[in-house]
Specification:
There is one protein chain. The protein is built from 12 helices and 17 strands. The protein is α+β, with helices and mostly antiparallel strands. It has a single domain, classed as Amidase signature (AS) enzymes (Alpha-Beta Complex). The strands form 5 sheets. Strands 8-10-9-16-17-13-11-12 form an 8-stranded mixed sheet, with helices on both faces. The protein has a 3-stranded mixed sheet with strand order 1-3-2. Strands 4-5 form a two-stranded antiparallel sheet. Helix 2 runs antiparallel to helix 3, helix 5 packs parallel to helix 6 and helix 9 crosses helix 11. The longest helix has 21 residues. It is globular, with a radius of gyration of 21 Å.
Length: about 450
């Protein structure tokens, strides 16, 4: 058994059956971190000593016959945004360099209660505000497939740690493609659930106890190396809690086993006036063809009649208004409340249009991003896409459309481009039906090839 590259489900089963111990699982991942993190720089704030104690306690509990949770003894990392007691949470921002929360966030609490052994945090973009993971505290995360290229952001450390075997799973945040884009760049899976499905309480350091301003478009979701792992982690962290009052009381269901022949899939190799690399659009068309060959009902998408560029601008405006509300001092000319409600009404138009689209389709297959992992660069530098310079700010566009609409979406690895870099494709589904979307991803996994290990790992 290759412990470091085993899935979360496999590790949990091996520990439960006493084929390996929790300590052995931890040691294997720490060895992988020791061997590769200097080059990749994905794992930060490593708590080796504390993790060893937690793993020993997990083994002792099993030895005395205690009930085992679904993650009993499984080591894991968390994006450096979740509040964790006893471990600092910095979001790569110097003023938060030494911040340690008084309590775990609900997501952390649930993962620990399920038996998980937290090892470390993973690197991020400063204040989660870029699509490359680089910050003044911990530096730059490199892509294990090619160290000269980005792992993406803002969950880049999580994706890079996963694909290099340093952790079996992580939980990222996604306001504008921050889970799916790095997952695609590193060749792993990443799920952005429906908005208001996973608690946002404690999902960002809050030393001053200020009112929670991030309430829309942002989601927490798992990154992993298999669909089964996404489903397991999502079931653990999803659903209402006692701290986030926005959470919907919708049950988190088991991932169904689906027959590809029952699926209705729409596909879009690109969106109107959105740039995309030819290798990526070709991968969408190829997978659509394979799905049709497997018996699914497949048709090219007739996308809702929306101005998707305007959706992106409106989404950015909403984020700006939320950030304005979070400032310690109000601006000289604050945004009128009427503008906030106008923005929400405009957003309703997009949400309802996509709801109508999914009445006729189980899922939409489309790109995650306009390019595969690009060379490290300064934020804002134009990105080369098939020898044409494209705006840096279009990097999250394909994913951000569904942050704005609130629909669940996941990134699935689907082969490699002509440069040998992972291609990630996006599956989008109906609101509140993450389990069905995961079931679709599982049903088509044989057609995509799933996770592939980078050559040097």
């Amino acid at each position: 058994m290759d412990i470091a590259l085993s899935s979360t489900v496999e590790l949990a089963a091996a520990i439960a059956k006493r084929k390996i111990s929790a300590v052995e699982a931890l040691v294997a991942h720490l060895a992988q971190i020791d061997a590769h993190n200097e080059a990749v720089n994905a794992v930060i704030s490593l708590d080796s000593e504390g993790a060893h104690e937690r793993a020993k306690k997990a083994d002792a509990a099993q030895a005395r016959g205690a009930a085992l949770g679904p993650l009993h003894g499984v080591p894991f990392t968390l994006k450096d945004t979740h509040e964790t007691s006893g471990m600092r949470t910095t979001v790569g921002f110097p003023p938060f360099a030494d911040y340690v929360a008084k309590q775990d966030s609900p997501v952390v609490t649930r993962l620990k209660a399920a038996g998980g052994v937290l090892m470390a945090k993973t690197n991020v973009a400063t204040m989660l505000s870029d699509w490359q993971s680089n910050n003044p505290l911990f530096g730059r995360t490199n892509n294990p497939w090619n160290l000269e290229r980005t792992a993406g952001g803002s969950s880049g450390g999580a994706a890079a740690a996963l694909c290099s075997g340093m952790t079996p799973f992580d939980v990222g945040t996604d306001m504008q493609n921050s889970i799916r884009l790095p997952a695609a760049f590193c060749g792993v899976y990443g799920l952005k659930p429906t908005e208001h499905r996973v608690s946002l309480a404690g999902a960002f350091p809050d030393p001053g106890g200020a009112a929670r301003s991030v309430r829309l478009m942002s989601c927490l979701g798992p990154l992993a190396r298999s669909v089964e792992d996404l489903a397991l982690i999502y079931q653990i962290i999803g659903g209402p809690d006692r701290r986030d009052t926005d959470l919907a009381p919708v049950p988190v269901e088991d991932m169904p086993k689906l027959d590809p022949r029952t699926l209705r899939i729409a596909f879009a190799p690109s969106f109107p006036s959105f740039p995309v690399a030819g290798d990526i659009s070709a991968a969408v068309e190829s997978l659509a063809g394979h799905l049709q060959g497997a018996g699914a009902v497949v048709e090219e998408a007739k996308l809702p009649k929306l101005d998707l560029h305007d959706d992106l601008e409106q989404g950015g405006a909403l984020i700006g208004m939320m950030m304005e509300a979070a400032q310690p001092e109000p601006p000289e000319e604050p945004t009128p409340v009427s503008r906030w409600f106008e923005a929400l009404a405009r957003r309703d138009t997009s949400m309802l249009a996509w709801d109508r689209f999914f009445e006729d389709h189980d899922a939409l297959l489309c790109p995650v991003a306009m390019t595969t992992a690009f060379p490290h660069c300064e934020s804002g530098t134009p990105i080369n896409v098939d020898s044409k310079e494209q705006s840096y700010w279009m990097l999250p566009a394909y994913g951000a459309v569904f942050n704005y609409s609130g629909h669940p979406a996941l990134s699935i690895p689907c082969g490699q481009d002509s440069a040998g870099l992972p291609i990630g494709l996006q599956l989008v589904g109906k609101r509140w039906l993450e389990s069905q979307l995961l079931g679709i991803a599982k049903a088509i996994e044989p057609l995509t090839g799933g996770f592939r290990r980078p050559p040097a790992y």
